[in-house]
Amino acid sequence: MTSTIDMTLTGKKSLTTIFSLILYLCLWKVLSLVIGRSIILPSPEEVLIQTIVFLGRPESWKMIAASTIRGMSGFFISLILGIVTGFFSGKSRFFQWFSDPFLISIRSIPVLSLILLAIIWFPTEIVPVFICFLVVYPVVASAVAAGVRQVDTELLEMAIVYNKSSYTILKEITLPSILPYLFNGISTGLGLTWKSVVAAEILSMPREGLGTAMQTAQLQLDTDQLFSWTLIVVLLAGLSEFLVQRLEVQQ
User: Fold this and answer.
1) Is 200 buried (19+), middle (13-18) or exposed (0-12) by CB count in 10 A?
2) CA angle 144-145-146, nearest 5°?
3) Distance CA 100, CA 89 (A)
4) In terms of C-beta density within 10 A (0-12 exposed, 13-18 middle, 19 or more buried), how is residue 12 classed?
5) pLDDT tens per residue, range 134-189
6) Where are the domains of the chain?
7) Rounded distance, CA 172 to CA 160, Å?
8) Where does the ABC transmembrane type-1 domain lie (predicted)?
9) Cβ-contact 140, 185 below 8 angstroms
10) Class of domain 39-249
11) CB within 8 Å of 128: residues ≥ 6 apart
């Protein structure tokens, strides 16, 4: 019965998603016809053709690979340090008081300011990684800390009374409480990863990268190319989100 309901909900979700995409594409097409100037708003088919052309070029894959490597580097550094910081923040009020000023400060500073400072401090290839770390790290740390605070203290006390090992407590009590919050932080963090990396590349202009390609297209007034690179970023972000959801379901 439950599986039937889940399949029905999944089917409705898929149909709704497809319908919304078709609606947005139709609206996009109508607007492009009304404006009548591809330099301002190219049509969906023009962007699709340009995207296919890009994906057929080895140079485009170098751009994609460069941004992906920078993004995943910054993300996994943020993930590791965020888990550690969040765990101890959730366990210790003192550690929370110690780390909160730094996390709050990072969240409060405009990303553009961070990028401009990073351009002064680091080589252009490192700037996107650094910015990604600063943007994603507070999200993961806060999510993990919230999960740790939601651990049932009564279960912990019972486990201690029955002399359960630290490994058993971590596996059976702590992790099940943290994982939903962690996956939420990962999902949010991945979305921010692509945004922050591309934004940093646009301003720092490394030799290869999606942001560099976007900036070049903008300078040359190639709006269809700019839309195509943006579409590629959206597809990469969507793929990342899909993989996280699949991993969460398996857990």
Assistant:
1) buried
2) 90
3) 9
4) exposed
5) 999 999 999 999 888 887 677 766 766 766 666 777 777 777 788 888 888 899 99
6) 1-36, 39-249
7) 13
8) 64-244
9) yes
10) mainly alpha
11) 67, 70, 71, 74, 196, 197, 200, 201, 204, 206, 209, 211
